[in-house]
Amino acid sequence: MKAVARTPRRPAPKKPSHPSLKDPVGVYCRVRPLSGPDQEGCIEVINETTVQIHPPDRYRIFRNGEYRETQYSFKEVFGTLVAQKELFDVVAKPLVEDLIHGKNGLLFTYGVTGSGKTHTMTGSPGDGGLLPRCLDMIFNSIGPFQAKRFVFKLDDKNGVDVQCEVDALLERQKRDAMPVPKIPSGKRQIDPEFADMINVQDHCKVEEVDEDNVYSVFVSYIEIYNNYIYDLLEEAPFEPIKPKWNNCNTPVRNGDFIPPQSKMLREDQNHNMYVTGCTEVEVKSTEEAFEVFWRGQKKRRIAHTQLNRESSRSHGVFIIKLAQAPLDADGDNVLQEKEQITLSQLSLVDLAGSERTNRTKAEGNRLREAGNINQSLMTLRTCIEVLRENQMYGTNKMVPYRDSKLTHLFKNYFDGEGKVRMIVCVNPKAEDYEESLQVMRFAEMTQEVEVARPVDRPLCGLTPGRRFRNQAFREELSQKLELRGGPKNGETEEQSVTEMFLQNFPPLPSCELLDVNDDQTLPRLIEVLEKRHKMRQMLLKEFGKNVLAFKTALQEFDSSVVSKEHYIQGKLSEKEKTIAGQKMELERLEKKIKTLEYKIEILEKTTTIYEDDKRNLQQELESKSQKLQRQASDKRRLEARLQGVVAETAMKWEKECERRVAAKQLEMQNKLWVKDEKLKQLKAIVTEPKNEKPERPSRERDREKPVQRSVSPSPVPGDVFKTRGGGQAVQFTEIETLKQESPTGRKRRSSPNPEPPEDAADSECTDVETRCSVALEMRAGSALGPGYQHHAQPKRRKP
């Protein structure tokens, strides 16, 4: 018998130890306008945080007389007249600010088919959605601080490396020399819709941007279709417009057609999920980034359904990665340390809408797509429910992230850290009442899930503001050198020092001789030259003294430096030995930690298995206990019924036995009467005279029958004994001896009273004892009745 499972009692809510380290998932609601003024609606906006949903007039509950209005609360509700700018400022702008500050974020739209999810994410011509506005804000903020191409280089393990300017230049030259892949016509031209979408009038940006960092933006675009991941930016080695089959009539596969390959999910060293082999493009402007998005959007799977003209048949995920690293101490080049690189990520997800096949009339591939979409959304809902239960009640249930690629990809957001925002898009028309009701319930439940708050990245330890401070210092130094006659227009520093040195000498007088008898010009010149010579000699002496002093100081400094160098070398060797020992100890501890982590993981899994077994056994024990209790109660009721049946049966058999005993007694009495009658006849034969003719027994019995039946027989003397079988036996103590001669053994006498011979008494006694000795003994199985048996002794012959 299968045990009936019981729901275990939920424990008391567990209070978190650090409530400030977690933030709830931000859930926002956006109501789409109705298609026409005469269309019936079922959703109303009550205030900025509450919406009310009521069943339409033709709904079954309303027809039965039960009119229920349900209100749902959100962080903020956006009505039908809210613009994209207001929605972006409230929902997406904080996520972009966190992205630039090195923190992760997730934003996804959720709702039924035709509720406006893609419009909210992408926008329309002239009114861009959340995605182009996010890109515009990112490049407006980091525009003057962007690194050159290929300074940051992504690896295949969800990490990033930094290159020097020379390696980046070589990489750029190598990429420029490569042939450009063939792209179908029209891909290089900017779509008018594309141009209108990125033409955002409000140029918003993040105010607090670290100016001492350099930034690079990488984008990727994937879709999850039928629970498979495909790269929408992957360069196809074939023309997409080529047919899959060569001829329509013959099923011959086209050799040029190569179907896209699905991608796999992996986990990096920081336990973040990523798509292996996904194309990640480095972009430098909003136009370039949105062009990459538009190229992938053209490949995304859409179809025409009964509810939507262009229904998304897959989940689209646009990932923006921002790599940033600090500048060196001079503020000129990127710091060549991988540990200083920060890689943040913002995921913008356009979920496919849940739908009912009885409304869309889907068949074939559309039916399969709808089933996979609903299955992935159901898995997302299950994960949210399990997370909510684990956080509210302190349970440790396993969250089924791996049941769907969608939930497995965003596992690190819910189990790790980062901000999570969800926009619930609803269509207020009456036909979507049931679907909208389920969406509202899921959204209200999602608000109770908490996600770890992202931590601030550590500082690099260098002087802040070094980029512009060093630049300003160099400009000021060049200006002062120019004012003091410093090097300018390509002059060297040695030439400048020589000119400054010559300016300290007295100027030379005029050397022109105007007359032959001029005796003043040459003496003045000689005097000036002598003064300059003396000054030169003095400067040379002072220079020699300074050189000697400097040489002595330099030698002393050199000796001190050498001694200090030896000391430092000794200390350094000691430190290196210490560091080597610490490294070995650290490696040993790391190995031990890995071993312990592995053991802890095994123990946690074992504990989980044991807890599940314990829970199942407890449930089984409870069911068995209830079963035993029911069986005990059934046994008591059955015993009570059996006691009544036994008592009734005992009474019935007791009466039956009394009746049978009475009947048997009457039968035995009748048999005893027959025996007595036979004995009386024997006595009469023995005792009556011989000359009298005996009367026939039948006549005598007929005559005395009324008298015998009216008189009860006299009891027969005897002893009663118990037998082995539990019965009773009777042994008669008095035996009657009847004497009678055989009619063939003696002569018939003619006289009526002849005298018997002398030995007649003996012979008669012998015959009577031989023929008439009778003993009655009680034994089972007697034909005469219970316990009666006739025994006759063998006849003894006379000698």
UniProtKB/TrEMBL annotation:
Q: Return the Basic residues bias intervals.
A: 7-17
Q: Which UniProt keywords apply?
A: ATP-binding, Coiled coil, Cytoplasm, Cytoskeleton, Microtubule, Motor protein, Nucleotide-binding
Where is there biased composition of kind Acidic residues?
Answer: 756-767
Q: Name the Gene3D superfamilies for this protein.
A: Kinesin motor domain, Kinesin-like protein Kif23, Arf6-interacting domain
Residues involved in ATP binding: G111, V112, T113, G114, S115, G116, K117, T118
Which segments constitute the Kinesin motor domain? Answer: 24-449
**Basic and acidic residues composition bias: which ranges?**
689-707
Tell me where it resides: Cytoplasm, Cytoskeleton
**What GO biological process terms does the UniProt entry carry, in alphabetical order?**
microtubule-based movement; mitotic spindle midzone assembly
Would I find Coiled coil among this entry's keywords?
Answer: yes
Any single GO molecular-function term of the entry would be: microtubule motor activity
May I have one GO cellular component term? kinesin complex
Q: Residue ranges of region Disordered? A: 1-23, 685-767, 780-799
CDD domains in the cross-refs = KISc_KIF23_like
Q: Which residues form a coiled coil?
A: 572-648
Q: What SUPFAM superfamilies does UniProt report for this protein, alphabetically?
A: P-loop containing nucleoside triphosphate hydrolases (SSF52540)
Family statement: Belongs to the TRAFAC class myosin-kinesin ATPase superfamily. Kinesin family.
- Quote the protein name from its UniProt record: Kinesin-like protein
Organism of this sequence: Falco tinnunculus (Common kestrel)
